Amino acid sequence: MIRSRRWLHGSIAALLAVGFLAWSNMPTSAQPAKKGLVTLRMGYLENISQWVPTLDPADVTDTTGSIATHLMYEGLVGLKVVNGKPTVYPQLAAKLPTLSRDGKTYTFTLRRSLKFSNGDPLTAADVVWSIRRALAASAKSPVASYDNLIQGFDAYNTGKSKSLGVRAAGNNVIIKIQKRASYFLTAFTYNINLVLDKKVLQGKPADDTGTYLTQTCKAAVTSGPFKPVCNSSATRDVTSFYRSGSSPTLTLVPNTRYHGRISNLKLVLPILDSSQTAYADFQSGNLDMASAVPSSDLAQWRGKKGAYLYPISGIEYLAPNIQEKPFDNVHCRLALEYAIDRNALDKNVLHGAYKPLYTVVPPGFVGFYNGKGTPHFSLSKAKSELAKCPGGINTTYVWRNDTPDRRAEAPALQAMWKNAGINMQLKGLVKNDWLPIILAPLSKSHTSLAYDDWFMDYPDPQDYMDILLTPSHVEDNMVWNNARYNNLIAKGNTAATTSARARYYVQAQKLVLGQAVFIPIDNFLELDLVSPKVKGLAPDLGQSIVWAKNNDWSQVSKS
To answer: What's the CATH number for 10-275+531-558?
Structure first.
């Protein structure tokens, strides 16, 4: 999924770490909200046309859905940053789980007296029901595979069995997984495991569009720090969230039954058609925060108060359709990659806001290496490989046309390919039209070549190496299925030491990159802007956007 969770790395991460203080103990009972809510208008929901693609945790595949659902819901565990490193911490759980000796059984104990925003008790049964709901065959969740380690997943997710390794025992939730996996707990922080109110949603299963929760405000009974303000009690009508005829907006106020510290904020999240609109609204004073500032404006904001420039886990890459001509041929793919001058692209086109990337795993992760031996720019090699490509390359590149950087990048790539004798037409799509293409096998839409990007869902290299390039995941839109690669990934996922994991992941990367199945382009920086009047926000590794420090919205204020 998501083109969503992120990871900070390198020296900037170390500098930013001072902004992420140690998590203080959360009180076990709700505190009353402070009087006089302070309104913050946040540019979180951008690059969408009419409404958030989904507000159902079972269906989240993009950043807007991730941001909205994490403001409203919590899971047993979440991610925070301690000393610059992403760390799993207890949310609805009172503490981190106990683990059986064989590494396959996790026992979570809930906090006492938990409640949903409507006052319903939040119990272990709600947790189990939420997970089962999201993983059921009827949910058609595009991200169900994030929980595929859970015992019985395959048969349950395909409707062949009702048995799943998740059960409630009093105030405990017990989860059994199929095999020891070093990344299970971090993967379990993913949105799909956020907790919903069984009493409210039972009988209304998730589906592949998340229609009910996405369009029905009264159904959004929350377990996290905020709850939505409803315009009406209508069902399956987005104007239940906002007044008909007004600009689509998700408005959130404190959940006064939240187990943690309660903020005095009213978050107004307008639907923004593009990052440029958000940027313009920030400059005119209509937003308190905007993200993804154009790289061309980076220089004018660098070093200014309220400007946060930081590295994130995001990578951009090209996904060739290896099932159909011309890119079912390795020489055609290599010609394509050798023709790309990443250094020139990042320096001359993208204003130094990106870093050339030659690996699948970005810097800072286990398994990252210098990319030695992978295809680098060489016009002569591009032409040599093209000569071995049957019929040459005359096809279309489908790309995401929603930022100035991407609009500059696509024609620059086209020109580089033309220099090598490759004829590539361009087809730019808005995000909502692009997502369905890259969330399915490219052969289904007969897309020859697609722009794609990825942001970590949790801080582990498995989130890249496994999810993007093994056939058990929908994100493997190239449909790469290589027995040797799959075996290396399986070993890396379960290796007992970090050094062993790194060794397996590097071997796997050399295999897939050498065949140009996955063509990395760059690893980029994020520039977010926050009004100097707003205090308590900082870059967040989970959402890759400025967020409440330590995920504590009670400490965010506006002067």
So the answer is: 3.40.190.10
